[in-house]
Structure to design on (411 residues):
């Protein structure tokens, strides 16, 4: 259906609608003490100068920012976006050396059975190793290229022929066919998690487990399940919520991590185990940083409130007034209104919002060291958990003497 649309009037309606929605749904009826009627009048003159939906989004963003609270998001709407041409990526760190050719410095090891973790150089039949040189892309020599990725423009998911060799020479080279991917972030994340697991395992002699929870949504819950259950036999656990993007599943994770032993179960021909099961029988610590956000703030707060262990790292983001989703706007745009907030069990104060959760042990990662692979926060967590294991390590006791119900006199 085609209609004549007066966008100026539509934008004015959207502006007023956003102002009204915030007035009616914001968690605090006092609007944080802000003169909300005055705020509408303050920004309204700017609306008549809007000539693009992005202008309107900016003005609404400025208006709602007057409330000084997290989760006040505005975006979307009716405007044309430029078509984006994706650059193919190879799942590897590639650098040009003095030969002029590009060398594969590191191959990111993914899990090729998972489409989100497909790493082109590790697929069956692709003979490329770390240290190899890429001499040509689809027949074009890379020696003349300033940037190899210019040859991979618009190649995502398409077959690309690479000429490779262990030395920067044509002699002895061979060709391989790969399908570049659009995004390497999942591969870098997977590599980082695997590196941390190995680092903790090696530093603790296999006694301590490690898991990272990237968010408190479906992905984060899946990552928790993926790494928590295979490590149940560990003596202790480091839970890492640095960079956690939030969500709503932190109560589920805390409930599982808080399990306390009530008894020991046994059965013939198997080892004894704690009851309830599926628990780490030993001490825990939690890593957090300034990018632990929203439910990523709430998780360490719960961890600390329940005295589950020490918090290590940096004060968290400090945004916990939550959102439910956007009501419809005329042009399909969105506005999030902070609608619910936590306060202290004493009923005397609001918590976390605007401040964050303080660590018990503050450690700031030096950016240069972190870039070089030195994680000072994780190193501190390893140090603390090893010290705690000296006095808090738990062991499942051996099976006691079996009952004798024969009725014979006890000697």
């Amino acid at each position: 259906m085609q209609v004549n649309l007066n966008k100026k009037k539509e934008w004015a309606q959207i502006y007023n609608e956003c102002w009204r929605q915030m007035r009616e749904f914001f968690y605090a009826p006092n609007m944080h003490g802000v003169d909300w009627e005055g705020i509408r009048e303050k920004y309204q003159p700017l609306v008549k100068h809007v000539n693009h939906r992005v202008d309107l989004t900016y003005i609404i963003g400025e208006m709602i920012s007057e409330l000084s609270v997290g989760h006040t998001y505005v975006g979307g709407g009716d405007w044309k976006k430029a078509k984006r041409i994706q650059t193919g990526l190879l799942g590897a760190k590639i650098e040009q050396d003095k030969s002029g050719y590009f060398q594969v410095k590191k191959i990111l090891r993914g899990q090729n059975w998972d489409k989100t973790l497909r790493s082109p150089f590790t697929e069956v039949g692709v003979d490329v190793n770390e240290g190899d040189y890429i001499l040509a892309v689809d027949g074009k020599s890379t020696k003349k290229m300033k940037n190899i990725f210019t040859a991979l423009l618009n190649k995502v998911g398409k077959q690309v022929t690479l000429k490779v060799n262990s030395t920067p020479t044509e002699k002895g080279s061979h060709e391989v066919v790969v399908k570049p991917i659009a995004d390497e972030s999942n591969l870098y994340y997977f590599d980082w998690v695997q590196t941390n697991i190995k680092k903790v395992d090696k530093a603790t002699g296999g006694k301590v487990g490690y898991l990272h929870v990237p968010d408190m949504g479906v992905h984060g819950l899946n990552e928790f399940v993926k790494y928590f259950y295979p490590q149940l036999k560990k003596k202790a656990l480091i839970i890492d919520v640095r960079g956690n993007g939030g969500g709503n599943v932190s109560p589920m994770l805390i409930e599982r991590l808080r399990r306390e032993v009530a008894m020991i179960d046994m059965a013939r021909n198997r080892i004894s185990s704690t009851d309830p099961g599926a628990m780490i029988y030993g001490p825990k610590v939690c890593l957090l940083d300034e990018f632990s956000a929203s439910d990523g703030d709430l998780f360490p707060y719960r961890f600390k409130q329940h005295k589950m262990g020490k918090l290590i790292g940096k004060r968290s983001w400090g945004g916990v007034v939550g959102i439910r989703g956007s009501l419809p706007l005329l042009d399909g745009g969105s506005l999030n209104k902070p609608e619910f907030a936590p306060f202290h069990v004493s009923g005397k104060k609001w918590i976390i919002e605007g401040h964050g959760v303080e660590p018990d042990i503050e450690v700031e990662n030096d950016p240069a060291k972190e870039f070089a692979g030195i994680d000072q926060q994780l190193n501190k967590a390893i140090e603390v958990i090893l010290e705690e294991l000296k006095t808090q390590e738990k062991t499942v006791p051996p099976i006691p003497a079996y009952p004798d119900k024969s009725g014979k006199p006890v000697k």
About this structure: The chain is about 30% helix and 15% strand. The two ends are 96 Å apart (CA to CA).
